[in-house]
Amino acid sequence: ENELATSGPHASNWASNIKQCLESHGFESAWTDGVTNIRAFLNSFRKSMILKFQEDWRNKLMSSERFGAYRIFKEIHKKEKLIDDITIKKFRDALIRFRFGLNELGINNRYNPLNKNCPFCPDTIEDEYHFLFVCPRYAEIRNKHLSHLKPNGLRLEECLKQVFFVNTTDNCRKTAMYIFYALKKREEDLIISQRANCSLVQN
């Protein structure tokens, strides 16, 4: 195995990959000297891999502009309660994507980063707070699904924690439903607006 891992200046095979993995986790001696207690080694190596994964995940989260809102309420890597609480896939997916910043809000506009404004509110940044609590375009949907939230006077961080640290299954589902239907309305209204603009140009 040692010969396989070191043969050639740029060797890349299963043996070299294992050697590199051990070295990156501080277990290079396991490659050169072997191990005497396999069970103890595997337990230690597993814990080291988990810790490194969590550290890499946290560093990526803190350095990414896209995850600015996500890192406010996601402090540790673990399975979220919403995965089990929201049984309807379209609502669960809408909430998960929203948390990750994988949506069409102006704040997440990668194709035109200079324009982050709300398409319905002139000179107003379309961030998560505006979409969830402020934009009058979704007032009817908001009154139906987010009446349990009280954002008045709270900072952005506190509002997002109120939304995503929901402590009941019912509130979790309501939040997911609001996001789904509000994003759907946003898309439909933009299509109507674009068609109206095209008609004006043609006339």
Number of discrete helical segments: 11
User: Distance between the terminal alpha carbons, to the nearest Å?
Assistant: 76 Å
DSSP helix fraction: 55-70%
What is the ordering of alpha helices and beta strands? HHHHHHHHHHH
Main pleated-sheet profile: none
Explain how this protein is built.
With 203 residues, this protein is an all-alpha fold. The chain is built from eleven helices and no strands. Helix 7 (89-100) packs across helix 11 and helix 9 packs antiparallel against helix 11. It is elongated. The mean pLDDT is 79.
Break the fold down into its secondary structure elements and pairings.
Blueprint: H1 2-6, H2 14-24, H3 28-32, H4 38-63, H5 70-73, H6 82-85, H7 89-100, H8 128-134, H9 139-145, H10 156-164, H11 169-202
Helix pairs in contact: 7-11, 9-11
